[in-house]
Amino acid sequence: MSFLTISALRKSFGANTVVKEFDLGVQKGEFISLLGPSGCGKTTVLRMVAGFETPSAGRIHIDGQDVTALRPNQRNIGMVFQAYALFPNLSVAENVAFGLRAARVPKPQIAARVAEMLELIGLPDLGGRYPFQLSGGQQQRIALARALAVQPRVLLLDEPLSALDAKIRVSLRTEIREIQRRLGITTIFVTHDQEEALSMSDRVVVMNGGIAEQVGAPFEIYNQPATRFVAGFVGTLNTLQATVADAQTGTLSLDGQHVRLGRALKVPAGSAVSVALRPEAVRLGRAEGLDVVLKARIDEVNFLGSVIRIRADMGVGKVSLDTFNRADAPPPPVGSEAEVSFAARDAIVLDH
Amino acid sequence: MTRRFPILPTLIVLAGAAYFLVPLYAAFQFSLQMKRGELSFEAYRSVFESSTFLSTLTFSTVASAAAIFFGAVLVVPTAYWVRLKLPKLRPVVEFLSLLPLIIPPVVLVFGHIRLFGSNSILPLTMSSWGTNILLVIGYVVLSMPYMFRAVDNGMASIDIATLTEAAESLGASRLRTIIDVIFPNVRSAIVSGAFLTFSISLGEFVLASLLNRPAFGPYMVQLGQDYAYQPAALAIMSFALTWILMALMQMAATRKPGQRLFRPSRSLAASKSQ
Ligand SMILES: Nc1ncnc2c1ncn2[C@@H]1O[C@H](COP(=O)(O)OP(=O)(O)O)[C@@H](O)[C@H]1O
Ligand SMILES: [Mg+2]
Question: Touching check for A105 and chain B: CB below 8 Å?
Fold first, then answer.
C-alpha cells in the first residue's frame, strides 16, 4: 500500500478539463517528480494534493486517511512555492517558526526546532534577517526550512528552482535531494526541466495534457519511453522511418536493410513505424557490437569542448550523435559522407 | 559642461510656493497680533485655556480613532476577500467605496436621521451614545474612499494569494492568516488610510453639526463667528497638525519590515548582538 495514493483524480475549470484520470501511488520516503510542458496540469495536481483546489472527481489518501475533503490547514503538508512566498513582515526565524506557532508548540521547543532547521539548510546565522535582505537561493532554502519545520507528512515543491540563477539551481538540486533523503520525507516535485526531474527523482511522472503518460524510474523513462511524447519530451531523440518486416521475430526494414530487434512487435508486418535512437546510442563509423550500419551525410558539426555533437542525414531520418573529443582525431568536415552505426537492441520502436 | 540655470521652472515653483505660503504667513502673523502693538502667542493661550476647545478636541479625537478602528476592521477583510475570492467584483467594490465622494454628507446624515429617528425601530438619535455611534459610522463612510484605496493598493503590492496559501499549508486558520500575515503586511497602508481618516473626521462639520455633537468642527466654526484672532491661531495649529500627520504617514509608508518608527526593533538589535 502506498503512503500517498491519488486515484482517478480529475479537475475541470468550467468546460476545460485540465487533469484527467490521474492515478499515482507514492511510497513513504519516495521522491517523485511531475514532469511536463507548461500548462499540462502539474501545478493543478499538486494544488489538489495540498488542498488549494477541490478535485472534480477522484480521491487522495495520505497514510490511509482520505484527505480529499480536508482543508489545507488540516492536511499537515509542507509546500514550497516558485516565488518563495516568505512572510515579508517576519524575520527568518519567525518565518520558520510560523507553522509551529500555529500548532501551539511551546516556545522553548520552537526555538530549538528553528535552530535545528536553519542548521539543516546550512544558514544557521540568518535567523534575525528579514526576507528582503536575502538572495533568492537563501529565501528558497528558508522556505524549505519553514515547510519542513512542522514535520509534514508530504512535502510538495512547485518549480522551486525556476526563479533562480543556473548555478544556484544546480547546487540547490543536490541540496534539496540530500535533505529529503536525510529526513526520509515523501516528496512530490513539480518541474518542466527534464534534467532536474531525471537527476533528482526516484521516479518521474511524465505528464501531457492532464494525463500521466508514463511513470517510472529516470533510467526507465529515458531508455524505454512508453509513448512518442515521452520519448520526445525527455532527452534528445532521433527518429528514423522504418517498416515492419516480421512482427514475430521483431524484424524491421530500414533503408533496405533488415534490422533484428530481438523482441516481438505488436504491429503487423508492412506497417510503418518510427524508430527512436538516443544520441549516445549512435556512433560515427563502425564499431564492434553495432550491427546496423547506415550511410549518412554530415550536416552539422558542433564542437562543445569535451563533446562534439554531430548531425547526420541518413535519408530515412536525421540523427544527432555525440562523440568525445580526441586531439588525434578531428571531426569530419560538414558535407562529407560517413558511416553511422548503432545496435539494433538500442532502437526504441514508437507506436503511432 | 555647465548647465544654464532653469529660470522658468524656478519662477513657477516660487509662484506656487508663494500662493500657499503668503496667506499662511499672513494668518500666522495675524494670529500673533491679539495684543495691540506687540507680537505674542496670546491668541494661542486663549484657545488652549478654553475648556470647550479641549473637550471638543478630545471628543473628535476619540470619534476619529473609533472611525479608524472600525474602518480598518471593515475594509481590510473586505479588500482581502475581494482580492482573494471575488477578483471580478473588485471594480464594483471600488466604485461603491467611492460613493461617499459623489454623495454629499448632508444626504448621508439626513438618511441617518430619517432611518434612526425618534419613530424608527432603532431610534439611535434619541440618546447621546446612539448619536455618537451614528457619527462614527458616518466618519467610517466618509473615509471609505481613502481607506479602501490605501489598503487595496497595499494588498496589490504583496502576493496575498500565495502568502495565504503558504500560511494555510502551515496549518494556520483564516483568522490567524489575516491577523499574522495580512494585517502586518498592509499595516503601512492602513496607517496612511488612518491618517487620512483622521484628518477628514477631526475637523468635520456637517455630520457633527446636524447630529448636534460637541465636536471640534462645529466649535471651530462657532469660534470663527465669535472671535477674530483665535480662529487664525486654530487654523495655524491645524496646519501644523496636518503636516505632522503627513510626516508620520511618510515614515510609516517607507518603513522596512522589522524597523520600528523611532527605535530599532528588538529582533534586529538581537541579531546584531549575536
Ligand atoms: N484557477 C484556474 N482557472 C482556470 N483555469 C486554470 C486555473 N488554474 C489553472 N488553469 C488552467 O489549467 C491548465 C493547467 O495549469 P497548471 O496546472 O498550472 O499547469 P502547469 O503547472 O503544468 O504549467 C492551464 O491551461 C491553465 O490555464
Ligand atoms: Mg505550474
Answer: no
